[in-house]
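User: Run a structure prediction on this.
Assistant: Running it now.
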Amino acid sequence: VRSDENLGFCSGNNLGMRLAARSGADFLLILNNDTIVTPDFLQPMIDFAAQHPKAGLLGGVICYAENPNKIWFAGGRFNWFLETRRLMDGADIRLIDKECFESEWISGCMMLIPRQVYEEVGGFRDDLFFGAEEWDYSLRVRRAGYRLFIVSDAVIFHKIGRSAGVMRPISYYYGTRNRLILKRLYLPWYRRWLFLVWFFITRAVRYAQFAVRGRWDLVRAGCDAIQDYFAGRSGKWSRHVG
């Protein structure tokens, strides 16, 4: 599948998922291009999904490519503000002693979607463009009555930060703006307002730290993200070239 323009992670994957679903695929696999897979990583997830019809999303154990025994993602949790954390981050993969276990969200680095779930829930939100789509999609699938599972025999390795860069303006912008969009979509009003109070206090401190380190590019990206959120602007960032 080829596009003449940069559609972003969300719309780009939607393009492929629509084609796969129309072609009669039983499962849709989201897999980052900066991953290394094992020969048999996919079959355990397919087998588990076939035996558990309420499994709406499936993921596996994702390890650091630079340290193959060190876990990067093996399930995730949301807190009261829908802030996220990865479970077992940095732990040794040999500590996993279960064949499968539930997770509150599945990483978009590797995500297996049964076709019937895709047909019911749809694809990623196009307006996010890039970032936070995995959290949004996990919440939507759970709202539809499905459960999310990590299958521990499905193992891949991730070259962390190769896609968008760690602490680059482009990733910081989308991470900040889309994080705010998710709070608006899923938090009740009182928790959303409490989050905004916490958010602006912590952003003031964070941006001061960026300024001291000379990272004015991150300050600009963060301010653009906040301004665009309150202005209702979504999709591709105006400073995103390419």
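The radius of gyration is 18 Å.
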